[in-house]
Amino acid sequence: MSTANIARAAGIATVVLAVSTGYPTPISAQTFAETAKLIGGAAVGLAVHESAHVVADFASGVTPGVKKVTFGPIPFFAITHDPVTPTREFVISSAGFWAQEALTEYLLVAHPELRSEDAPFLKGVFAFNILTSVAYSGAAFVRTGPNERDTRGMALSAQVEEPIIGAVVLAPAVLDSMRYFGVNNRWVVWGSRAAKIGGALLIVKSVR
Predict the structure, then answer these.
(1) What's the whole-model pTM score?
(2) Quick one: pLDDT at residue 68?
(3) Do 101 and 117 touch, CB atoms closer than 8 A?
């Protein structure tokens, strides 16, 4: 199971960079407290992603462990587990995405005007979720990163090429970004939800 290997590469710093390029709000307009809330939101996004993996481990009857891995020259730690059936592996590897996609959907429904709100904490959560999916999908497209990465675990257990998983992860992130920036056409909203459900339904390919 991959955990925050690539998520950490996107990391808190990436969220702050996203702010400076206009993702939630220009960084020059942020007070120290607002910036702290933004980073805190990103940290919560990371915690949600990782906690989902741990919960899926225990639900699958395995105890998570810790392993040192690297992403290029950057050292990380991955949460690992003993071998499980392909279906359980798909659930464990997918759990982080499922949790963050559900959280993103909640944010967009509860705060349809999130971009214009003075809500740096929520914007930090949202930005982390989107950027993490983008980072993971990029790694999946070029098949790079630690063997424990989530997209590789999903691809192997579902017996599909990893770039396909990359597309499955990227599609909701792109559509949810459009919703964040005010593109709330019916096809965008329901396309986003269909992409999330479709990604989860890949579990049927892991049953064998």
Answers:
(1) 0.82
(2) 65
(3) no
